[in-house]
Amino acid sequence: MGHVTVQDAVTAFEDFMEPTAAELDAIEREMPVILADVELLDAQIITIDRTPSELDARRIRRARRRLLVAHRDHVNGLSGQTGGAA
User: Fold this and answer.
1) Nearest to residue 31, comparing CAs of 86, 73, 65?
2) How many whole angstroms separate alpha carbon 13 and alpha carbon 11?
3) I need a surface site. Which of 2, 6, 45, 71 has the fewest CB within 10 A?
4) Inter-residue contact 4 to 31 (CB < 8 Å)
5) CA distances from residue 58 to 51, 54, 65 in whole angstroms, order as listed
6) Residue 86 — very low, low, confident or very high, per pLDDT cuts 50/70/90?
7) For 9-51, what is each residue's pLDDT tens digit?
8) Quick one: DSSP state of residue 18?
9) What is the pTM assigned to this prediction?
10) Measured distance CA(38)–CA(50) in Å, rounded
11) Are 70 and 33 in contact (CB under 8 A)?
């Protein structure tokens, strides 16, 4: 009975470990949603340890609207594609 090292197991799947071109394209199409989500999280994190000011509340509302718009645009863009679904 032979021994299989962790290195052997990892390198056996080396070709499958990197994202494919299709996966990278999907990430690229979703990037506006990801960035808008990060912006919303940043706005929310700022207010974790304090009471949100009116400026903080506006920043969060704007970030939430941008996320919704980015998500809507992403989903509408997907609806025109075939062979994939969100």
Assistant:
1) 73
2) 5
3) 2
4) no
5) 13, 6, 10
6) very low
7) 667 666 677 888 999 999 999 999 999 999 999 999 999 999 9
8) S
9) 0.69
10) 20
11) yes
